[in-house]
Amino acid sequence: SKSFKVAVLPGDGIGPEVMAEALQVLDAVEKKYAVRFERTFANVGGAGIDEEGKALPQTTVDICKGSDAILFGSVGGPKWESLPPDEQPERGALLPLRKIFGLYANLRPAIIFPALTGASSLKEEVIAGGFNVLVVRELTGGIYFSQPKGIEGQGRDRVGIDTMRYTVPEIERITHVAFQAARKRDKRVTSIDKANVLSSSILWREIVEGVAKEYPDVKLSHMYVDNAAMQLVRWPKQFDVILCENMFGDILSDEAAMLTGSLGMLPSASLAQGSFGMYEPSGGSAPDIAGQGIANPIAQILSASMMLRYSFAMVEAADAIDGAVEAVLNQGLRTGDIFQDRPGERRVNTKEMGEAIVAAL
Amino acid sequence: SKSFKVAVLPGDGIGPEVMAEALQVLDAVEKKYAVRFERTFANVGGAGIDEEGKALPQTTVDICKGSDAILFGSVGGPKWESLPPDEQPERGALLPLRKIFGLYANLRPAIIFPALTGASSLKEEVIAGGFNVLVVRELTGGIYFSQPKGIEGQGRDRVGIDTMRYTVPEIERITHVAFQAARKRDKRVTSIDKANVLSSSILWREIVEGVAKEYPDVKLSHMYVDNAAMQLVRWPKQFDVILCENMFGDILSDEAAMLTGSLGMLPSASLAQGSFGMYEPSGGSAPDIAGQGIANPIAQILSASMMLRYSFAMVEAADAIDGAVEAVLNQGLRTGDIFQDRPGERRVNTKEMGEAIVAAL
Ligand SMILES: CC(C)[C@H](C(=O)O)[C@@H](O)C(=O)O
Ligand SMILES: CC(C)[C@H](C(=O)O)[C@@H](O)C(=O)O
């Protein structure tokens, strides 16, 4: 039987609670399919700071290096908010993880499940029947990581500097990810840039067009980032795959996620060349409801499903998990964040939701 | 009687049609208040390209230099879309105008008029009673204008580079604009940055906090740009003044504008040190409906009102125009873009809307 090593990084806030349910789902997958998931737990984020003095302790990096994939919970909370930006749980854990493991391709689905259209702040007529957008975000380049970056000079003569820099291979590889993904979906890629202002965007657009020629079955269009921010609000269904550089992807993926109205439902994958990847919910650590056992575990469970799909090539098991989640939603089960008190809905807690998904599996 | 010189740049698409109505409103203001507006027309955008070979001809620059303010229509259209980015009507006219005239402060109100909540793609419960956000965007610095910028190298070794750079005085002066504006409104400023990733944002946040001390009556908070893109969708009413650097302001002001659902209603001002400014609708040139006499002239008329308020210190006249617009909306007059066929609504064309506003004045 196959065996995979998983680094389990529950993190802070609701992270440990929802992770527990995702691990139950992995248990169920082990029983159903001939597979073993060897799990090693490690500290990250605030837990890393509290236990080992750093948001990303070296022991955690080593555990991740010895694994086939990282299953990540969520990090951050008021306790660590006054630390310098570099040391804070989110930035201090996520940016180094992305860089160390070369996680250049961030996949962020923004899906409204038809059963949950009511949760969106968009009008029913705008989202009737749901929508399904996949943001493919470049994650290890651009203004996040390029040099020069820093504050130069003294006192009132200081200048803050960041650099948005893209090379041809960086643009090519993320474009391939977007087009490959589109092939399995509705075969449309909207590439986002600001080519009327940015030189990096002019190169971006040219390289994207070059790569697109290898995918004649996929339709490519270009959109300026400011227009994309508008079009997402106006008519999200016009999009299939949205391809973005790092910063634009940060902004638009969060906008798209919020448009679904159910952040607690959305997983994400950050992929390296090869099969290694890190998988985490799109939402945050929700410190306000942490420890109460009421958080929605679905984003974490769907993150585990993405791990099976992208890192372990277990497409059948991933489909089964996704199907189990949908079945449970159709049965009317709702954690508090998605509960709307409509006929047929039943309010459940984290454990009950997790158990129902395991049962549906 | 006072006299002001106005450079009138109607531009392309619906620009000339809506400008005609704004000029009628200025005629009415001349009659009612002891003032004269000396108008000089000039080509800009596609009209500049067609007539004088450039989106911003030198004659136009000279006319603007000889004026107290610029009243700008809108530019762009399919005819000029295949030109290189630098030469296109929008970029080729707007960026040089901002730079030449030092228009560092861009004010973009995103207002839902209570009469028009139905036009938004947001749910009634999210926007009941309307909302009123003012985006204050830095307009002459940051990644739009800083060096180095360009594509270096050859072939597959090319690198696209842009620089986001902010100095202390640049941050200070736009922060003052935001706080001054907040004083006349709900006294709250949300400063947008990405201080967990960008060095320019770390400096931005520090300088904004310093300036804020001079305005103890105004409440300052900070928000990351990705979170702001979410919060605008989730609950736009939480914002009063949103203070942004150039690129974030481009994205968020467009998102906020679209949330209102009536782009044809939204004016903007781009202000220099002193009283000089440029005033233009937030929407585009809408080539699809150009020449039909059905465009909404309100954004252009409200842009003229902002000109009176900010460049000519004619607060009373500006209030009168704003009041006339509101009155006409309350009477039920609607151009096609805001017509919803509800009881009490009457569909009108560009001229009728302009005339009704003049009459209400
Ligand atoms: C925490 C922060 C550095 C991070 C980012 O900007 O990438 C987060 O917003 C995200 O999108 O994962
Ligand atoms: C046309 C373009 C250069 C411009 C900008 O990005 O500033 C436009 O989008 C705007 O917001 O006025």
TrEMBL record, chains A, B:
One of its GO terms (molecular function) is 3-isopropylmalate dehydrogenase activity. Residues 5-357 form the Isopropylmalate dehydrogenase-like domain. Keywords: Amino-acid biosynthesis, Branched-chain amino acid biosynthesis, Cytoplasm, Leucine biosynthesis, Magnesium, Manganese, Metal-binding, NAD, Oxidoreductase. Mg(2+) binds at residues 226, 250, 254. InterPro entries: IsoCit/isopropylmalate_DH_CS (IPR019818), IsoPropMal-DH-like_dom (IPR024084), Isopropylmalate_DH (IPR004429). Substrate binds at residues 98, 108, 137, 226. One of its GO terms (biological process) is L-leucine biosynthetic process. NAD(+) binds at residues 77-90, 284-296. Its EC number is 1.1.1.85. Its main location: cytoplasm. The record marks 144, 194 as: Important for catalysis. The keyword Metal-binding applies. Binds 1 Mg(2+) or Mn(2+) ion per subunit. It is found in: Cytoplasm. Pathway: Amino-acid biosynthesis; L-leucine biosynthesis; L-leucine from 3-methyl-2-oxobutanoate: step 3/4. Its cofactor is Mn(2+); Mg(2+). GO terms for cellular component: cytosol. It catalyses: (2R,3S)-3-isopropylmalate + NAD(+) = 4-methyl-2-oxopentanoate + CO2 + NADH. Catalyzes the oxidation of 3-carboxy-2-hydroxy-4-methylpentanoate (3-isopropylmalate) to 3-carboxy-4-methyl-2-oxopentanoate. The product decarboxylates to 4-methyl-2 oxopentanoate. Belongs to the isocitrate and isopropylmalate dehydrogenases family. LeuB type 1 subfamily. Homodimer. This is 3-isopropylmalate dehydrogenase. It comes from Geoalkalibacter ferrihydriticus DSM 17813.
